[in-house]
Amino acid sequence: MSKTRFSPFTILLIVLGLFLAVFPFVNDSRTMLILFTQIFIFSIFAMSYNLLLGYTGIVSFGHAMFFGLGAYAIGICMKKLEPGWNGVLLAVLITVALCAVLSFLVGILTLRLKSHFFAMLTLAVAGLLMVTAEKWRSLTMGNDGFTFRVPDLLKDRISLYFIALVFMVLTYLLMRRFTFSPVGKVLVAIRENEQRVESLGYRVLNYKIIANVVAGTIAGFSGILYAVSLRFVNTSVFATEVTLDALLMTIIGGVGTLFGPILGAALIEIAQHGLMDLAKVHWIFERWVILFGTIFILVVMFFPKGIVGSALQWQFKRKNSQKATLDKKERSKAATH
Amino acid sequence: MDVILGILINGLATGMLIFLLAAGLTLIFGLMDVLNFAHGALFLWGAYAGIWLYGQTESFILGILAAIAAGAIIGALLEKFIITPVYGNHVRQILITLGAMLVLGELVKVVWGPNLIQAQPPEWLKGSWEFGGLILIKYRLFIIAVGTVVFAGLLFLLNKTRLGMTVRAGVMNKEMVEALGINIKRVFLFVFLLGAAMAGLSGILLGPYSGVLYAEIGLEYGILAFIVVIIGGMGSVTGSAIAAILVGVLGAFAAYYVPDIAMAVNMLLMLIILIFRPQGLLGMKEAAKQ
């Protein structure tokens, strides 16, 4: 057995990646392209959320604040400056700076307290930002929002599809690298037993803040992509619903797994898309939150690891039992000899 | 002067509504360390069920009873099926009660439709009294009266009865109470039902006060109640009362003088408290720590 052998899961991922890479050339229907781009963007957002919820055990109810900051940063830069690459670069820099500073401040204020203080403060800050965006009309046009022009390359649906795809893959790889790094291991340890990590001499607060800053910055990038894909931004980017979407995606897909948020984002986006069509058939489908909420509750109660986590667990168990039966056979063989 | 008094009374009435909601929340948290994000849903169901029966029977008293019953029944179901299974795990508690909040909020739209629902005060509470230019709207005074009575009753229950003593002891040291042979789970269920009933009462009182009901009030007032609990200190009923009145009155003044930041005032207040006094006005210091 060679060392570089890929696991079946990695092969599956590569096949999936190749499929997504050729998909626009096989089927270039506009709705599908837009749907897939949405999935990629929300995958990035959900992955950043997962770093908090799944890997560090922090619940945020205001993750939308970073998403919204990114969206407004690109929108305002494109509107006030000419829609060129300099503006995009400036927007990215502004997003990174704002998200990093904000996540640092929020983290240092409440991450030393019980988990719900962080949940409440993030909810409050996201609410404050939403009010700010609503009232600062000269910059944001208030509740109505505004449309803006983007560089030609970002206008093209296919190139935008690939940009979002590349960003998603990059975020996935970054998450993989980050969670396997020593810092990532400490984060998982904090999730599992915070007191223990503290008594081992780690400064828990610092690690939590690192996780928050990384997650916030990545969420800002997803916000930029989101606004670019719509070429429009309004206050809804700060809404609690955006955070709830990330929460649903992460929990249903698999909290604390690398691939879970991507699967969750795909499932929820596709289901929302499908249910929107079904809403014309019967009004009950408009109330899709009931369906997702119920699934969400059941998942939290019975499969706390989500789809991917439960699948991995099942596979792990099967492997172990196979191993156990093999061991038994070996032993009985040895006994007969 | 009259304007200021008028705003003050308005703020007090809002504060009382929030207090009714926050009192249950803070007790449930103090006693069992359970953070119930679905508390706003009890409020919402109380409001809708109460206003519905009030509309059907024309009796406001029956409506209030229905609201209290709806709050308590849904509270009991919540406690049994949603909160008990994840007891002791903060993160899962927050997540699962949030899920319950979403589902219950949408179910209201299924039962009573997604449109706004109108609500009027009953005949005997309509209109206002006038004292030398000062106009006192009857219904607002009614809310303040109900809130004060409930607050006094709650203080009596907590400080003067045996059950209240058990609850207070449970807030301080749960294990010790259990070791003395008291079934703390039953006490918890009682407190939970009490909190849920108060949430339902608060819901129906809001109906004629704001004039319209919609499904989002559950989350809106739920968040307000949380802000109040954090400002007042987790587990402290008196702290919640002070904080609720503070939030209500400040909000009313802000809405009159600086309407642009009215929505932000509560959030700013909570920010200041979190920075300078994370345990809240009357909370115990240990309650906030990890």
UniProtKB/TrEMBL annotation, chain A:
<feature type="transmembrane region" description="Helical">
    <location>
        <begin position="58"/>
        <end position="76"/>
    </location>
</feature>
<keyword id="KW-0472">Membrane</keyword>
<feature type="transmembrane region" description="Helical">
    <location>
        <begin position="88"/>
        <end position="111"/>
    </location>
</feature>
<feature type="transmembrane region" description="Helical">
    <location>
        <begin position="6"/>
        <end position="26"/>
    </location>
</feature>
<dbReference type="GO" id="GO:0015658">
    <property type="term" value="F:branched-chain amino acid transmembrane transporter activity"/>
</dbReference>
<feature type="transmembrane region" description="Helical">
    <location>
        <begin position="33"/>
        <end position="52"/>
    </location>
</feature>
<feature type="transmembrane region" description="Helical">
    <location>
        <begin position="209"/>
        <end position="234"/>
    </location>
</feature>
<dbReference type="InterPro" id="IPR001851">
    <property type="entry name" value="ABC_transp_permease"/>
</dbReference>
<keyword id="KW-1003">Cell membrane</keyword>
<feature type="transmembrane region" description="Helical">
    <location>
        <begin position="117"/>
        <end position="137"/>
    </location>
</feature>
<feature type="transmembrane region" description="Helical">
    <location>
        <begin position="288"/>
        <end position="312"/>
    </location>
</feature>
<keyword id="KW-0812">Transmembrane</keyword>
<feature type="transmembrane region" description="Helical">
    <location>
        <begin position="246"/>
        <end position="268"/>
    </location>
</feature>
<keyword id="KW-1133">Transmembrane helix</keyword>
<feature type="transmembrane region" description="Helical">
    <location>
        <begin position="158"/>
        <end position="175"/>
    </location>
</feature>
<protein>
    <submittedName>
        <fullName>Branched-chain amino acid ABC transporter permease</fullName>
    </submittedName>
</protein>
<dbReference type="InterPro" id="IPR043428">
    <property type="entry name" value="LivM-like"/>
</dbReference>
<dbReference type="Pfam" id="PF02653">
    <property type="entry name" value="BPD_transp_2"/>
</dbReference>
<dbReference type="GO" id="GO:0005886">
    <property type="term" value="C:plasma membrane"/>
</dbReference>
TrEMBL record, chain B:
<dbReference type="Pfam" id="PF02653">
    <property type="entry name" value="BPD_transp_2"/>
</dbReference>
<keyword id="KW-0812">Transmembrane</keyword>
<dbReference type="GO" id="GO:0022857">
    <property type="term" value="F:transmembrane transporter activity"/>
</dbReference>
<keyword id="KW-1133">Transmembrane helix</keyword>
<dbReference type="InterPro" id="IPR052157">
    <property type="entry name" value="BCAA_transport_permease"/>
</dbReference>
<comment type="similarity">
    <text>Belongs to the binding-protein-dependent transport system permease family. LivHM subfamily.</text>
</comment>
<dbReference type="InterPro" id="IPR001851">
    <property type="entry name" value="ABC_transp_permease"/>
</dbReference>
<feature type="transmembrane region" description="Helical">
    <location>
        <begin position="6"/>
        <end position="27"/>
    </location>
</feature>
<keyword id="KW-0472">Membrane</keyword>
<protein>
    <submittedName>
        <fullName>Branched-chain amino acid ABC transporter permease</fullName>
    </submittedName>
</protein>
<dbReference type="GO" id="GO:0005886">
    <property type="term" value="C:plasma membrane"/>
</dbReference>
<feature type="transmembrane region" description="Helical">
    <location>
        <begin position="60"/>
        <end position="82"/>
    </location>
</feature>
<feature type="transmembrane region" description="Helical">
    <location>
        <begin position="187"/>
        <end position="209"/>
    </location>
</feature>
<keyword id="KW-1003">Cell membrane</keyword>
<dbReference type="GO" id="GO:0006865">
    <property type="term" value="P:amino acid transport"/>
</dbReference>
<feature type="transmembrane region" description="Helical">
    <location>
        <begin position="221"/>
        <end position="247"/>
    </location>
</feature>
<feature type="transmembrane region" description="Helical">
    <location>
        <begin position="94"/>
        <end position="117"/>
    </location>
</feature>
<feature type="transmembrane region" description="Helical">
    <location>
        <begin position="34"/>
        <end position="54"/>
    </location>
</feature>
<keyword id="KW-0813">Transport</keyword>
<feature type="transmembrane region" description="Helical">
    <location>
        <begin position="254"/>
        <end position="276"/>
    </location>
</feature>
<keyword id="KW-0029">Amino-acid transport</keyword>
<feature type="transmembrane region" description="Helical">
    <location>
        <begin position="137"/>
        <end position="158"/>
    </location>
</feature>
